TrEMBL record, chain A:
Protein name, entry field: Gpi16 subunit, GPI transamidase component
InterPro entries: PIG-T
Signal peptide: 1-24
Keywords attached to this entry: Membrane, Signal, Transmembrane, Transmembrane helix
TM region(s), chain numbering: 535-557
Gene Ontology CC: one annotated term: GPI-anchor transamidase complex
Keyword Translocase: no
Pfam family, one: Gpi16
Gene Ontology biological process: attachment of GPI anchor to protein
UniProtKB/TrEMBL annotation, chain B:
Subcellular location(s) of the protein: Endoplasmic reticulum membrane
Biological processes per GO annotation: attachment of GPI anchor to protein; GPI anchor biosynthetic process
Listed Pfam families: PIG-S
Family: Belongs to the PIGS family.
Name under which the protein is recorded: GPI transamidase component PIG-S
Length: 597, 509
């Protein structure tokens, strides 16, 4: 249980949130979860969730549900929607498992998947395009570039999380934009969707400067219908923002953001090192956790609570913190603190309409929050060299000593990356560190593969795999790089082409909530032509033609005259007069020279 | 559909596939358009719209010759009074209201066709009734129906001998008065000004052009968006469904043959004014917070308030119910103490000041249906104004749809635009002939189709070329060739001209 502490905490939180919504027809909840992570990082997990009755939603009476989003979803018959904006990399080695089991994060850039109600695939795709166009306008993101080449239809990687009456009529479409840079212009529309709009409650902490300065951040919007057994349905919208802030970096004042080196006296050096001297210092790891407060890390304090929360009578704590109970935490007067029984969680209820701050002084605590281990580590890189071919290498590490991990690897590759699936190879490395090549079929239990069509769709590859306990599996396959047409290259063609992150869905988890891992996005260098070539060709061809023309023209217009006539003509012509003047000038200079002599 | 729409069936499919467009990079597909016909329509040369309104006269108390005579003389008087030919009132006689075959008048009075769909096109029914104790005839317009009751003293029954009975003159004047505004409106729309209509008073002209300025362009679908805005956290909910059902649904039912309406509502808390908006000022005399009239245009914080147009075709009309903070309540407009105003061609605003008990520092969390009554009555008036309904409730004129001639030489014209244009034109002709025969519902239906098709082709997105090769670009590409070839040619030409001039001079000397 300790292994999956944070994970299971958030999972149970999510499960309890789901179950608590069943009875209420229209309510709103929000919660901030703070947890210090190793290496002086701080995970802040914001969650906003509201329910609207299905009838009010269908009649377009919007109260908590944002009208702009609701109308888009109704217009394109989208029954369930998941939208993710992510930047940075989750450092699983130091930080452990992902918040919400990875189910509320996306791959780097923008990721969108939705279940669309349509009679056939073509109509579903038409609605999907309308959906991406509308969301593009709503969220100021380049979602309109999700075309058929960036759209896939995953078979086993995603399952609807809502309760749908007619699952057969729903089409799942998935699109990614790994090159999208998520920034403040995406946060502003995201905040506008919240009922309290960043004016009250935990959403007052959002500041674009801090959020997009984080080491990792993920914004998500989820919409799904939830039905009780007696047929009462609500439409739920859940928005989350998760971010990992570097405490030291965030505490820098905005007026003076450049880090300055510490003076020698302030450095904590390891004096046991033989080279330790006035000029050499091996920095000592701090024994105590760094001090921080909400106002320092977020640059502002929290303002009260959103008055819409708890309208259905349930008491919910809007701020929770996961530190050992022994740790000293100071909070603003007027707010209350509740310590949970697990010994590591405490929650706070800020006073309404009052600023709320929370600060932890620098202190050493003997019992640290147990460090959890993720279920699976995954890493994906492009290997190989040259302009023609390359290879993909995916490394899965199973930290458990007892249980194997079953999962599905979902890759959506652009069409200009042509994988050779027959080259799929697996290498297994045990704890002894000796790699053994094994047949990929020994690990792969099933494969769903949809090959690419040039300029129409990308490759879709879903592989169900199993990694044995205490071992690392390396999966490789080769690919060929396509040569694009001249106009298909972007202006920054030499930067490389983004390849969407792989999505890994872990199957054997006891809880019902799904667990996902996403790899980082990749840059694929493609052979790029010399873009000035057409212009060179035009100029060269033109020169040759002009040369030929000049020769012919010259022959055609030249007059053939006798020598006597030529002399007479030459004297009158411009050339003759110019020559005459030149001769006169030369003569004058010569005469001057003779005078000087 | 005309014959033209049949032949280019395959080109749209070809033009839409990307492979085709990459093969022919620089050439542009331009379907044939009947430009001349479109220009004629746009200039109003093809169709002269007429609005013959049928008015049914019911005079059960009169003898048949008497009523026929009354009809004839009234029609004469009407024709004499009318100086606007497009708008023409035609009287028809029925002797009972049950719709039995009516009598036929003689000159200018047609037979009334009492088929059910035709009955709907009768603009007005005039009931002529005797009433004892009257000195002069009087009239009464029934609310909610198209019925005008005319009461006359029994002594004034027109005898067939009199050429100009006072009752006829009275009825004609009443009708003229009733339709005066509508006539002026039609004249205004058709000509752009009411110059052709002498009887229209300057005030009427002004009010018509003002109304047309404020009203929306005709659309098949209007999206009505009702928003509750408040600067604080309360009220956060309202009894909106009941309010719409009670105060708005009857009005929208009446408009159903003309346009469709969709309704959406939202609640927006923490809606603050934009920093540019001047803050309301407390007025001691009024004991209220006042907004200046000239600042009302900045009242809506367009950057912050989520008032984006509804998705789908058709314009959105926004109705904003603003509940001020208790610290700024009550809030009114300074100049006229009003609590509502219209934003022309956009929507309306209503300031709702909830009555607060003494010492109460927050607004109620929930707005009851009763407290929404005045707001929604105002909204329905604003809706009528925005839709351009005249102040006298009569048949609105059908919309006019103009096709757009294409004069840009390098923009592509897909074949579906050409077919849209031909559909528009054929429906416009149908509208014109329906109008001439007074079948307003059919004319309206045709005009709606024409309007839709015209809009669709106007906003055809493939007409905005994705690849654009301006002529300057082509010249730039060929310049390396044209330059070296052009220079010797030009120099040679100059030389040749010089030689000719010299030779000519030499010959003169």
């Amino acid at each position: 249980m300790t292994t999956f502490g944070l994970l299971s905490l958030l999972l149970t939180l999510a499960v309890t949130l789901w179950s608590s919504t069943a009875s209420a027809s229209s309510d709103y909840h929000e919660q901030l979860f703070l947890q210090p992570l190793p290496q002086s990082s701080l995970l802040a997990s914001f969650n906003f969730r509201s329910n609207t009755s299905q009838q009010a939603f269908d009649n377009q009476h919007f109260r908590y549900f944002p009208r702009a989003l609701g109308q888009i979803l109704q217009h394109v018959h989208t029954k369930e929607l998941h939208l993710r904006f992510t930047t940075g990399r989750w450092d699983a080695e130091s930080w452990g498992p992902r918040p919400w089991g990875g189910s509320k994060e996306g791959g780097t850039g923008v990721e969108l998947w939705a279940w669309i109600d349509a009679p056939d695939d073509d109509e579903a795709f038409g609605k999907w395009i309308a959906l991406t166009q509308s969301l593009s306008g709503l969220f100021c993101a380049s979602l309109n570039f999700v075309d058929s080449t960036r759209t896939t239809r995953p078979v086993v990687s995603f399952e609807p999380t809502g309760d749908h009456q007619d699952v057969d009529g729903l089409h799942l479409l998935h699109g990614t934009l790994p090159g999208e840079v998520v920034c403040t212009e995406n946060l502003t529309p995201f905040l506008k969707l919240l009922p309290c709009k960043g004016k009250a409650g935990i959403s007052t902490l959002f500041d674009g400067h801090k959020l997009f300065d984080a080491a990792w951040q993920s914004m998500s919007v989820d919409m799904r219908p939830i039905c009780t057994s007696d047929g009462d349905c609500v439409v739920q919208i859940e928005q989350t923002i998760d971010m990992v802030l570097d405490v030291e970096r965030s505490k820098r004042p905005r007026s003076n953001p450049i880090p300055r080196p510490l003076s020698n006296e302030l450095l904590a050096c390891d004096t046991s090192k033989p080279y330790n001297s006035e000029d050499n210092c091996f920095p000592l790891e701090k024994g105590a956790d760094a001090a921080w407060s909400i106002s320092e890390v977020f640059g502002r304090t929290l303002t009260g609570v959103c008055p819409l929360t708890g309208s259905d009578g349930t008491q919910e704590h809007s701020v929770c913190l996961r530190v050992p109970h022994e740790k000293q935490v100071f909070i603003t007067e007027g707010s209350t603190e509740i310590k949970k029984e697990d010994g590591f969680t405490r929650c706070f209820d800020p006073a309404p309409a009052q600023p709320f701050d929370l600060s932890i002084p620098e202190q050493t605590v003997d019992i640290p929050v147990p460090r959890e281990e993720p279920i699976l580590y995954a890493e994906r890189t492009i290997v190989g060299h040259g302009q023609e071919r390359g290879g993909m290498r995916i490394i899965f590490g199973n930290p458990s000593n007892t249980t194997a991990v079953d999962f599905i690897l979902f890759e959506s590759l652009p069409w200009f990356l042509r994988p050779y699936i027959h080259t799929l190879q697996a290498t297994i490395t045990g704890r002894d560190g000796i790699p053994t090549e094994i047949a990929a079929s020994d690990l792969v239990t099933s494969t769903f593969y949809r090959p690419a069509i040039d300029r129409e769709r990308g490759t879709q590859l879903e592989i169900a795999l199993s990694v044995p306990a205490a071992s690392t599996v390396t999966l490789t396959y080769d690919f060929e790089k396509a040569i694009l047409r001249y106009t298909e290259y972007p202006p920054d063609a030499n930067r490389g082409f983004n390849v969407a992150p792989a999505v890994i869905r872990i199957l054997n988890v006891e809880n019902s909530a799904p667990v996902y891992i996403r790899s980082t996005s990749l840059l694929l260098p493609l052979p790029t032509p010399d873009f000035s070539m057409p212009y060179n060709v035009i100029i060269l061809t033109s020169t040759v033609i002009a040369l030929a023309f000049g020769t012919v023209f010259n022959i055609l217009v030249r007059r053939v005259v006798s020598v006597d006539e030529a002399a007479a003509l030459g004297a009158q012509s411009l050339k003759g007069r110019l020559l005459g003047k030149l001769v006169a000038i030369r003569d004058r200079f010569r005469s001057k020279e003779t005078k000087v002599e | 559909m005309t014959a033209k729409s049949g032949d280019p069936v395959s080109p749209p499919a070809e033009a839409s596939t990307p492979s085709k467009s990459t093969q022919r990079t620089t050439s542009i597909y331009r379907a044939h358009l009947p430009i001349q016909e479109m220009v004629d329509w746009a200039d109003g040369k093809t169709c002269r719209p007429v609005y013959p309104l049928e008015i049914q006269v019911v005079a059960p108390s009169l003898q048949l010759p008497e009523s026929q005579h009354l009809l004839r003389t009234t029609q004469h008087t009407l024709d004499d009074l009318n100086e606007f030919a497009a708008h023409h009132l035609r009287l028809k006689l029925t002797n009972d209201t049950n719709g039995s075959p009516p009598r036929t008048g003689n000159d200018g009075v047609d037979t009334l066709d009492s088929t059910p769909e035709h009955a709907a096109d009768i603009a007005l029914t005039v009931h002529v009734r005797p009433e004892e104790g009257l000195v002069a005839p009087r009239s009464e317009l029934q609310p909610h129906t198209t019925q005008l009751d005319v009461f006359y003293p029994p002594s004034q029954i027109p005898s067939p001998s009199t050429s100009n009975p006072p009752l006829s003159i009275f009825i004609a004047q009443e009708l003229q008065r009733l339709y005066g505004e509508e006539k002026a409106t039609i004249a205004h729309i058709l000509s752009g000004e009411t110059a052709g209509l002498d009887s229209a008073s300057p005030e009427l002209t002004e009010s018509i052009s003002r109304r047309l300025r404020r009203s929306m362009k005709y659309a098949e679908t209007y999206h009505l968006s009702f928003s509750l805005f408040t600067p604080g956290s309360a009220p956060s909910s309202w009894d909106i469904e009941a309010a719409i059902q009670e105060y708005l649904a009857p009005l929208l039912d009446a408009f159903a043959p003309i346009s469709n309406f969709t309704i959406d509502t939202q609640v927006q808390l923490y809606a603050t004014f934009s920093p540019m908006t001047p803050a309301p000022i407390y007025d001691e005399a009024e004991a209220a917070w006042t907004l200046k009239k000239e600042d009302l245009s900045a009242f809506i914080n367009a950057a912050e308030w989520p008032l984006n147009p509804s998705i789908g075709s058709g314009p959105t009309l926004n109705f904003i119910l603003y509940v001020p903070d208790p610290s700024q309540s009550p809030m009114i407009v300074k100049e006229n103490r009003a609590s509502s105003w219209i934003v022309p061609q956009w929507g309306g605003v209503f300031l709702l000041n909830p009555s607060l008990a003494k010492g109460q520092t927050s607004n109620p969390a929930y707005l009851e249906q009763d407290s929404l009554q005045s707001a929604f009555k105002t909204f329905s008036h604003q809706l009528l104004t925005l839709l351009g309904t005249p102040s006298t409730p009569l048949l609105p004129s059908p919309p006019s749809a103009d096709p757009h001639p294409q004069s840009l030489p390098s923009i592509p014209i897909p074949a579906n635009v050409a077919s849209s244009v031909s559909i528009t034109l054929s429906h416009l002709s149908a509208t014109c002939s329906h109008l001439r025969e007074g079948r307003f519902n059919a004319a309206l239906a045709s005009a709606r189709v024409a309007e839709n098709e015209a809009e669709r082709s106007f906003f055809e997105k493939t007409m905005v070329g994705q690849v654009y090769f301006p002529d300057e670009h082509k010249v730039a590409v060929y310049l390396p060739l044209l330059g070296p070839i052009g220079v010797p040619l030009v120099v040679g030409l100059i030389k040749e001209v010089k030689r000719l001039v010299a030779a000519w001079k030499a010959r003169r000397v």
